[in-house]
Amino acid sequence: MSRLPTVARLAPPAGAAALSTLRTQFTLVIFLLAFLPNLVLTLSARTATPSPALLAWMLLVAALCGVLGYLLSGALLRPLSRLQRELESGRLREVHDDDPAEIRALRLAFTQLLERLRTEQTRRNAFMATLVHDLKTPLIATGHLTQALVNLPLPEHERREVGQQIASETGRLLALVQQMADAHRFEREDVRVQTAPTDLRVLLSGVAARLAPQADARGVALSVHGAGHASVDASVLERAVTNLADNALRYAHSAVELHVTPEGLMVLDDGPGLQADLTDLAQPFNAQPTTIAGQQYTVGTAGLGLFITRRIAEAHGGELRYERRQPLNRLSPEPAVSPTPSPSAVSSPVELQALPVPSPVTPAQPTPAAPAYTALSIVLPEVLP
User: Fold this and answer.
1) Could you report the per-residue pLDDT of 249-258, keeping only the tens digit for each?
2) Would the pTM of this model clear 0.90, i.e. be above it?
3) Nearest Cα to 264, choosing from 374, 375, 376, 379?
4) Is there a contact between 297 and 290 (Cβ–Cβ < 8 Å)?
5) CA atoms within 13 A on the CB side of 180
6) Transmembrane stretches, by residue range (predicted)?
7) CATH architecture of 196-329+372-379
């Protein structure tokens, strides 16, 4: 958990400290507005009034103006003081009848801010709980496998299998740590990428080559389609596509397609699709569960991949889109064309009456539509052929 930066606060000058409150400033303004006209009138109407009496009168007027300024400033700032007390107590109440429009707007802004803070805190708590679970699972598995490798007299082939399982669990841990680092980097608003002209087909081919063993293990066909060039940060964009493709391989039934399109990059799979809004799922700290392929998951770290991909797309000036659509590499069937009858087949009316009545023809059944694919697209500002 990051600590808030410590800012050194300089002590204000002695004169500024005396005027550091709004009530003091309001009192001074009201005092001057009330006292200066009296002072001008008194000095302009000066006759034979003794100087001590005039001085006493001016002191009395000054005292009355000061008291008036203090009372009026308190009345003007009463709604603000009440709001301050409510914020300090942590219980922000409803709008009061005597609240001016500015205080009502300020109260609404504080209410929305506190609501966002509560939501963020809830998300972070859920994220930490899920993170601990996701880290603990491979660590426990690695510990058990290590104990078996050290304490049990395993044959050579079983030792190799245990070693491969340990390497797999270690890879899961490293991938989770990498996602955490990426989420921390891309959570900031001022994310910058180093763009250069890139062959998008080569980028997708590299992703497919690295994920080919995973696709083979799951029995899923992984293919690359299309071609194009764009000015992107190849390593960062490749990470985003890898997140989408890895997620697609996890839930696809039989096929995953990586496409270069005129709008950018697209990952399609024949899985069940997202069961919640993309905006809700693509959050690093989300406590809302989601259902995928009939199983319920707490988003937690599962939302990191989509969040990182969305922020990478936004850093390139684009966006992340989701839709259900037909696969791009599948052609629609050609419409059936009725054969044109030959001239010899045309008969006279008498011959037509002699012909047997044909049996009714059963209409052809419509061709079932291809199943809808899950399509997640990284839209880029410009894609060149």
Assistant:
1) 988 989 999 9
2) no
3) 379
4) yes
5) 16
6) 26-43, 55-77
7) 2-Layer Sandwich (3.30)
